[in-house]
Specification:
- By secondary structure, the protein is α+β, with helices and mostly antiparallel strands.
- It has one domain.
- The chain has four helices and 14 strands.
Amino acid sequence: MLGWPALLVAALLMSAPAGAQPPQVDVHALFDQAEREARVGIARKTMQVDARPARPGEVVVTLIAGEGAETRSPPAKQGDMVVRNRCPATGNEEILVEAAKFTQRYDGPEGPADAAGWQPYRPRGNEMRYLVVRAADGAFSFTAPWGEPMVARPGDAIVRNPQDAADTYRIAAAAFACTYEVVQPAG
């Protein structure tokens, strides 16, 4: 027979929706509000990455160590690249970058390919606007530019291309610390 603490825990678990997702927010409205509150800074990606050509049709699931799947890419097209961050804290996560965006964001290659086809590339250091998700914001989800849901948590950065507000996405807190340099602090 179960005691009352075990029954309470069981009741709480059964009342929570299975696979409950954080609330959906308009990330552009959130970013605009942060701009008005002077909570937006400027940062640029500076950490060298590894990249390889994506296979047409390849889908890249970005896995963050300790979190699991962050997002899922659309099928790769000819010329797209798979980029692997050099960030052990996040498990050296991989992302799919469209061909045109890759050439805007990275220089290289800076060395020969390894046996798996990965080559080192250097970020161009394009300045991005960023805000840090506050505890008061809580966890939330939004639609990434590639049409997939993305969950942001307190401490994560939301980055926005200043030339294209639609290019707004989440960078996990550890990945932001590993791969970005803050040029102008937020707030």
